[in-house]
C-alpha cells in the first residue's frame, strides 16, 4: 500500500492525479480461508483489520453482498460519544472513542474524526435527574463529560429554542466535549484499505446464503460465488443477522427495524456541536458542507426496508423545528433508512456461539457507528483466541439466558 501523505498528494498533482493506486483490490474468493467474515460494514472491516494487525491472522475474507460500507455504516448520522450509563457500555464505547482519536494515523486514511462536542439536552425534570446519574457514573469511570446550565447551552448552541414557556424548556444538558462526529464512509474505506494492504480479501457482490455446519462445528459458507470453506466464521451483518444466523440453526434475540435520517440543503455555519434532544426525539449536527444532518426515530414495526417513511419524517421534523425554530423553512434534500438490529436491552452482542468456530457481533441497533474501532478490536481478539475479550465478555449471548441484561434503553432514551 502506498502511503497517503502531503508528498504523495503533491507528486500525484504533478501528474494530474492519473496515477493513484486502487484503494483496495477486488480479488476472486479462494476456496478456503482461516476466517470468513460476513458483512463488510465498519464492524466487519475493523475486525478484519485488527485480526491482521494485532493477531497476524491474514488468511481472511470479508464477504459483502453489496458494496462495502453500503449498509448502516454508510447510512448513519455519524455521532460518536461514550457517555453511556452502564460500566460494560462505558468500557467498550470509550475504548472505541479513544481509538477514533488516532484512527486516521493508524489506517493512513482521513476519517475526519471531529471531536466538536456533543450535548444531550435535558428537557424534563426526569431527564435532568437521569443525566445527572449518568454524569456520576461516567465520572467514576474517568469519562470526561459534565452537566451544563441552560445559559451554557445557549452559548454553545445559539440557535436552540430557549423560550422558558415552550412545551419542553431547556433545563440543562449533558455535555461530552470530545464527543462529536466522523466521516462514516471514510471509516469503512480506511479500514478496508488498511486490511487489504495486510492481505485480507474483501469480496464485494458476494452474498452468503447459508452457514455450513457439521454437527457442532462450522465448516464454511454457501455464497452467490460458490462454497467457501472456513475454520472460523464471524457474522457481522447488523439488521440481517437473525436471517443469516437462522441458516446455522441459531435464533437470535433481536428484531430488525428501519431507522431513518435526513439531510437539509447546505447553509452557512450555524452550529458547531452535535445536539441530541431525546425527549422530543431528534438530533442534529452540521456537516462540513453546511448541510444539517438530522436523525430521528424508527418505524414502529419490524421491517427490512432501507428507505424513509412519512410518519417518521413528520415526527422527526416536528421535534427538530420545536428545538431549532430557524430550520422551519429549510428544504430537505433527501432522507433514507437503514435496517438496524435491536436487542431487548439495547446493548450489542459480541459472542462465541454454541457452534464451534461461529462468532457473532451484532445488536448495535441505532448506535453502532461510534463503536466500530472498539468493537472490531475486541471481536478480532475473541475470534483469534476463541474466548471472549474481557471487554466483550459481558456482551455474550448467554446474558439473555442468565438474565444479566445491560440495560441502556432506559438510560439513554435513544441509544444513538
Ligand atoms: C439512519 C441511521 C442513523 C444512525 N446514526 C448513528 C449515529 O449517529 N451514531 C452511531 O453510533 N450509530 C448510528 N447508527 C447505527 C450504525 O450505523 C450501525 O450500528 C453500524 O453502522 C452497524 O455497522 P455494521 O458494520 O454492524 O453493519 P452494516 O454497516 O450494516 O454492515 C453489515 C453489512 O453486512 C452485509 N450483509 C448483510 N447480509 C449479508 C449476507 N447474507 N451476505 C453478505 N453480506 C451481507 C450488508 O450488506 C452490510 O454491508 C445509525 C443507523 C442508521 C440506519
- CATH class of the largest domain equals Alpha Beta
Question: Rounded to an integer, what's the Rg over CA atoms?
Answer: 21 Å
Tally of discrete structural domains: 2
Strand residue percentage = 15-25%
Supply database-style keywords.
single chain, 416 residues, alpha/beta, FAD/NAD(P)-binding domain, D-Amino Acid Oxidase, Chain A, domain 2, 8-stranded mixed sheet, 11 helices, 18 strands, 30% helix, globular, binds flavin-adenine dinucleotide
Describe this structure in words.
Its EC number is 1.5.3.24. Belongs to the SoxB family. The structure is a single chain. With 416 residues, this protein is an alpha/beta fold. It folds into two domains: 19-109 and 184-253 and 345-402, FAD/NAD(P)-binding domain; 114-180 and 256-343, D-Amino Acid Oxidase, subunit A, domain 2 (D-Amino Acid Oxidase, Chain A, domain 2), CATH 3.30.9.10. Helices cover 30% and strands 25% of the residues. The protein is built from eleven helices and 18 strands. Strands 1, 2, 8, 9, 10, 11, 17 and 18 form an eight-stranded mixed beta sheet that branches. Strands 5-6-4-13-14-15-12-16 form an eight-stranded mixed beta sheet. α2 (42-55) links the parallel β1 and β2. The longest helix has 21 residues, at 87-107. It starts with 5 loop residues before the first helix and ends with a helix. The structure holds flavin-adenine dinucleotide. The site of flavin-adenine dinucleotide has 40 residues, from α2, β12 and β16.
Amino acid at each position: 500500500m502506498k502511503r497517503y501523505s502531503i508528498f504523495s498528494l503533491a507528486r500525484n498533482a504533478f501528474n494530474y492525479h492519473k496515477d493513484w493506486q486502487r484503494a483496495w483490490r477486488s480479488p476472486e474468493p479462494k476456496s478456503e480461508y482461516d476466517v470468513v467474515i460476513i458483512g463488510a460494514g465498519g464492524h466487519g472491516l475493523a475486525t478484519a483489520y485488527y485480526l491482521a494487525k494485532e493477531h497476524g491472522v491474514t488468511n481472511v475474507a470479508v464477504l459483502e453482498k453489496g458494496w462495502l460500507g453500503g449498509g448502516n455504516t454508510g447510512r448513519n448520522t455519524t455521532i460518536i460519544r461514550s457517555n453511556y450509563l452502564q460500566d460494560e457500555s462505558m468500557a467498550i464505547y470509550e475504548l472505541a472513542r479513544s481509538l477514533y482519536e488516532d484512527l486516521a494515523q493508524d489506517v493512513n486514511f482521513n476519517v475526519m474524526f471531529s471531536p466538536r462536542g456533543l450535548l444531550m439536552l435535558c428537557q424534563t425534570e426526569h431527564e435532568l435527574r437521569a443525566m445527572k446519574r449518568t454524569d456520576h457514573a461516567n465520572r467514576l469511570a474517568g469519562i470526561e463529560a459534565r452537566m451544563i446550565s441552560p445559559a451554557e447551552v445557549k452559548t454553545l448552541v445559539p440557535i436552540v429554542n430557549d423560550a422558558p414557556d415552550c412545551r419542553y424548556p431547556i433545563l440543562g444538558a449533558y455535555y461530552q466535549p470530545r464527543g462529536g462526529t466522523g466521516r462514516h464512509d471514510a471509516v469503512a474505506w480506511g479500514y478496508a484499505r488498511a486490511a487489504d494492504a495486510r492481505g485480507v480479501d474483501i469480496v464485494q457482490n458476494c452474498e452468503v446464503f447459508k452457514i455450513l455446519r457439521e454437527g457442532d462445528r462450522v465448516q464454511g459458507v454457501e455464497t452467490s460465488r460458490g462454497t467457501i470453506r472456513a475454520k472460523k466464521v464471524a457474522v457481522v451483518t447488523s439488521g440481517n443477522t437473525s436471517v443469516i444466523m437462522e441458516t446455522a440453526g441459531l435464533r437470535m434475540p433481536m428484531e430488525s427495524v428501519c431507522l431513518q435520517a435526513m439531510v437539509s440543503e447546505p447553509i452557512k455555519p450555524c452550529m458547531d456541536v452535535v445536539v441530541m434532544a431525546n425527549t422530543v426525539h431528534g438530533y442534529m449536527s452540521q456537516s462540513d458542507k453546511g448541510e444539517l444532518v438530522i436523525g430521528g426515530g424508527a418505524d414502529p414495526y419490524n421491517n427490512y426496508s432501507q428507505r424513509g417513511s412519512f410518519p417518521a419524517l413528520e415526527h422527526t421534523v416536528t421535534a427538530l423545528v420545536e428545538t431549532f425554530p430557524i430550520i422551519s423553512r429549510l428544504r430537505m434534500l433527501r432522507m433514507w433508512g437503514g435496517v438496524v438490529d435491536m436487542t431487548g436491552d439495547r446493548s450489542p452482542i459480541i459472542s462465541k456461539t454454541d457452534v464451534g468456530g461461529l462468532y457473532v457481533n451484532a445488536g448495535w441497533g441505532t448506535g453502532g457507528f461510534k463503536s466500530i474501532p472498539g468493537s472490531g478490536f475486541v471481536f478480532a481478539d475473541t475470534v483469534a483466541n476463541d474466548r471472549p475479550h474481557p471487554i466483550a465478555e459481558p456482551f455474550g449471548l448467554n446474558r439473555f439466558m442468565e438474565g444479566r441484561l445491560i440495560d441502556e434503553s432506559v438510560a439513554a432514551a435513544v441509544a444513538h
